[in-house]
Structure formats: structure tokens, C-alpha cells
Design a protein that fits this description.
With 155 residues, this protein is of the alpha+beta class. It has helices spanning 3-10, 60-82, 107-122; strands at 28-31, 34-37, 88-99, 129-135, 144-152. It has a five-stranded mixed β-sheet with strand order 1-2-5-3-4, with helices on one face. The longest helix is centred in the middle third of the chain and has 23 residues, at 60-82.
């Protein structure tokens, strides 16, 4: 078990199976020393636990937990292409999309769920640049979607 996976276990978490693509894309790709994930929905065992707009059908607190699930799914996608999460040098950038009710402005707090998970699991390597964007709708009516870029340790 890698150090990162040991940390996940310490936090009571396990990496899920990689979420199969919903269209014509790969969950993650490597380019040079970077891995880019596709947008990760908060799928749990192949299903969205909740759907709808944050600030309407979904609370900000629920959405923050969903963002955490998205980040965990993203780590699984990264592992699927690099084999060992200890090869992560650092998380470079996180982009979070929040399906938002018209008056909802708490997108940064929602995306903190993903950022805080990456920090808890990777320590200083999980500190990253970030964008948190409100959108009208996401695939499958998901409340949140996360994508990120990681830099790999150079051989």
C-alpha cells in the first residue's frame, strides 16, 4: 500500500473503482509529467447520491461532501494511469463546477470539500491553485463536478 493510500485508510477512506466514462473521453491522461483528470462527478457505486442545484434542492454542506467524493474519484482516475499515488509531486490546479440556484454564491465553500480532501491526503503536495465556478446545469443533473491536474515526480 502506498503512503497516500495508507493516509486514505487512516482517514477512513478507500479509493473507489474508476468511474466509467459517460461519453467519448478517458477518466485521466498523462502528458509529460502531468496527469489531467476529466470532470469527476460525485458517483458512489455507479450512482449519484443526490441531484439538483446547490442552494435549491441541495444544501451547500451536502455539496461540499459531494465535492470531496469527486476528489476521491479523481484520485482513483489518477491512480489508474500512474499506478502509485506516491508518484504525485503536487496537485497543480483544481477546477470545480457547482450547479447553482440563481442566487447561490457559495461556490468556493463547496469546492473546499475537494481542496480539503486533497490537502488531508497529500499534505503540502495537495496545496493547489483553484477555480470555483457556478453553472446552470451539470451532466446527469449532478450538483458538483471537479477536475484537476497533478504533476508527477520526475524520474
Amino acid at each position: 500500500m502506498s503512503g497516500v493510500e495508507a493516509k486514505l485508510a487512516e482517514l477512513g477512506l478507500t479509493l473507489p473503482e474508476v468511474v466509467p466514462p459517460l461519453a467519448a473521453y478517458q477518466p485521466a491522461v498523462i502528458s509529460g509529467v502531468y496527469v489531467y483528470t476529466s470532470g469527476q462527478l460525485p458517483m458512489v457505486e455507479g450512482k449519484l447520491p443526490v441531484t439538483g442545484k446547490v442552494g435549491a434542492e441541495v444544501t451547500a454542506e451536502e455539496a461540499k461532501e459531494l465535492a470531496r467524493t469527486c476528489a476521491l474519484n479523481g484520485l482513483a482516475a489518477v491512480k489508474s494511469v500512474i499506478g502509485d499515488l506516491d508518484r504525485i509531486e503536487r496537485v497543480v490546479k483544481v477546477v470545480g463546477f457547482v450547479a447553482s440556484a440563481a442566487d447561490f454564491t457559495g461556490q468556493p465553500g463547496v469546492i473546499n470539500g475537494a481542496s480539503e480532501l486533497l490537502g488531508a491526503v497529500l499534505g503540502d503536495r495537495g496545496v493547489h491553485a483553484r477555480s470555483a465556478v457556478g453553472v446552470a446545469v451539470l451532466p446527469l443533473d449532478a450538483p458538483v463536478e471537479i477536475e484537476f491536474q497533478v504533476e508527477l515526480v520526475r524520474d
